[in-house]
Design goal:
single chain, 546 residues, inorganic pyrophosphatase (n-terminal core), 3 domains, elongated
Length: 546
């Protein structure tokens, strides 16, 4: 059990920021597939769920997945050592023996609830032997019994607090000076008169040294007394030398130690320990429970969170801290982004309309049966990303998968899709910022930073009633994010076209992209796909303007 390595966490399966239905359902369905194949994965989201996605999860009885803030390296990710903590009620002597036996120089001390309350080092133990109060004893009878290899003659109470006294004077001198009191912890050899005096004065603890063989009469008196009495085989000198080591280890431990929370980031840890010279630091959870000891050498080769990405392959669209994590797989249907990995990974990228289309194919390739809930989620992702197979991004593969999934869930697809779109496109009660950012993505096209938001609606007036406010927000975003182009597509699902609001550094950009002059808020027929229609046109226009 000593120095046990801490296990790594589950694999994170995440979609992109500002998650849409395809991104969320892909994370859930792919995590389900990986788990059926023997992996330990958990799906997460990188933002608030939109109304459409909530509708889908609720319809198929699937719980909302948790939000993931980042995948930066935390102290809990390190392969730190979990030295066994010791109780504060153990003796200094017992702790020293444990540390010596296991070659430990910094020992964590916990209370009865496993909460970290201090640490002890070999230096602390050494200094206690040099500078400690040799006569003050605060310990338990069990500690004394164990450390002095003693036999208990009479046990009255376990807690022992008092002043140590070694009786070397003549009986009459001891009696006359009243050295023995009820607060005394007396060390004496086979001095039977002194032993009787100790019993009379009800000392805290009587320690009889040399393994004295007491007369039967005295044994009877001892056993019927009201005080703790033990017999140790050690001589009086050795007994006295050991007594200041029987104290509770809490008497010498460092209470105001430097400790870290397991959720602290590695970067913070590195910065903090620059101010200290210690080699090891205790690690606790939020409740203060001891977890282990982290050292400077653990920082040299830190454990990384393992991540699988779905529906994206660009850093700016992904989880914060991704460069500190290990990417295991990418499943996507977008253009190649800017990601790189240190080792080869499984990368699946197909020019289809939905990531869920690819994932369904992977279920079939692995001979994993698709249940109704997973089928419903995958079908919803396809419906959302292909606008019920009407988007130009739709491929024959999407249509084939669509039909196969329909047979599994057996519902009225047209009615389901319309309710899904109605719920998802409702903008009632949402702020300008919420509407703009619900499906906003940034791209770097030919070195130019471009931001494109897309809003799907069945009621265009919900946007155009606040047209000026949207234009102001677009301007703010354009300036603050230093965009070459900030574009809002307001896509009418039924008309299969989009209205455009935008701001660009070059006023010719949009006219060149669309091959005609266009006004703010103007409708463009058959323009519904950001990925397959808008981005290629913008890229071509930027290239022309170079």
């Amino acid at each position: 059990m000593l120095d046990k390595e801490v296990d790594n966490m589950s694999i994170f399966v995440v979609g992109h920021k500002n998650p849409d239905t395809d991104s969320v359902t892909a994370a859930i369905t792919y995590s389900n597939l990986k788990n059926k194949l023997g992996c330990d994965t958990v799906p997460y989201r990188l933002g608030e769920l939109n109304l459409e996605t909530k509708f889908v999860l609720d319809y198929f009885g699937v719980d909302e997945i948790e939000y993931l803030k980042d995948v930066k390296i935390q102290l809990k990710d390190l392969k730190y050592k979990k030295n066994i903590p010791l109780s504060s009620y153990m003796s200094v002597h017992a702790v020293y023996n444990h540390m010596t036996k296991n070659k430990i120089r910094t020992q964590p001390i916990v209370d009865e609830n496993s909460k970290l309350i201090g640490i002890v080092t070999m230096r602390d133990i050494a200094m206690s032997l040099i500078n400690g109060d040799f006569y003050k004893i605060n310990t338990s009878l069990n500690n004394v019994e164990h450390d002095l290899n003693a036999t208990v003659v009479n046990r009255v109470r376990d807690l022992i607090i008092g002043e140590m006294l070694i009786v070397a004077y003549h009986y009459e001198t001891v009696k006359r000076n009243n050295q023995i009191t009820e607060n005394s912890i007396v060390i004496v050899g086979d001095r039977y008169d002194v032993i009787k005096l100790c019993i009379e004065r009800e000392v805290k603890l009587l320690i009889i040294t040399g393994g004295a063989n007491l007369p039967d009469e005295l044994k009877s008196i001892c056993k019927n007394s009201g005080i703790n009495i033990i017999v140790t085989p050690f001589d009086s000198y050795t007994t006295a030398k050991h007594m200041n080591q029987v104290n509770f280890v809490s008497s010498i431990m460092i209470k105001n130690m430097i400790k870290f929370n397991a959720n602290d980031y590695l970067d913070y840890f590195k910065e903090e320990i620059q101010n200290y010279s210690h080699s090891k630091y205790p690690l606790v959870d939020y409740a203060g429970n001891y977890l282990g000891m982290v050292s400077r050498r653990h920082v040299l080769n830190p454990g990384k969170k393992q991540v699988i990405l779905v529906d994206h392959n660009e850093y700016r669209q992904s989880v914060e801290g991704l460069k500190q994590a290990e990417i295991l797989e990418i499943i996507d249907h977008h253009k190649l982004g800017d990601m790189s990995t240190e080792l080869p990974i499984n990368f699946r990228n197909s020019p289809v309309g939905s990531t869920d289309t690819i994932i369904y194919q992977m279920y079939k390739e692995n001979n994993i049966q698709v249940d109704k809930r997973m089928a419903g989620l995958m079908l919803s992702g396809i419906i959302s990303d292909t606008l019920l197979l009407k988007s130009p991004t739709t491929t024959l593969v999407d249509k084939v998968v669509f039909e196969e999934l329909k047979t599994i869930i057996d519902i009225d697809i047209d009615d389901f899709a319309m309710n899904m779109f109605k719920t998802g496109t409702s903008l009632v009660g949402q702020t300008i910022e919420q509407i703009f950012n619900k499906d906003f993505k940034e791209f770097r096209l030919y070195g130019k930073k471009v931001g494109i938001a897309q809003v799907f609606t069945l009621n265009i007036e919900e946007v155009f009633d606040r047209k000026e406010a949207f234009q102001e927000y677009i301007h703010e975003t354009f300036v603050q994010r230093n965009h070459f182009l900030t574009l809002l597509l307001i896509t009418d699902i039924l008309k299969e076209g989009s209205y455009l609001l935008f701001e660009a550094k070059n006023q010719q950009l949009i006219p060149i992209a669309l091959e005609r002059k266009i006004k703010q808020g103007e409708y463009v027929k058959n323009l519904v796909s950001r990925k397959k229609q808008v981005i290629p046109k913008i890229m071509e226009a930027i290239n022309i303007l170079k």
